[in-house]
Amino acid sequence: MSRSLVSLRCAELSDAPILAELWCDGLRRADPHEQVADLELVIKGATASPEQRMLVAEYDGALAGAILLRVATLSAINLEQIVQAISPHVFPQYRRHGIGRALMESAVAFAEELGIAHVATAATSGSRDANRFMARLALGPYATLRLAPTVAVRAKLTAQRPVLPGNGRQRTRLLAARRSMRRSQVEAPELELG
Question: pTM to 2 decimals?
Answer without folding.
Answer: 0.77
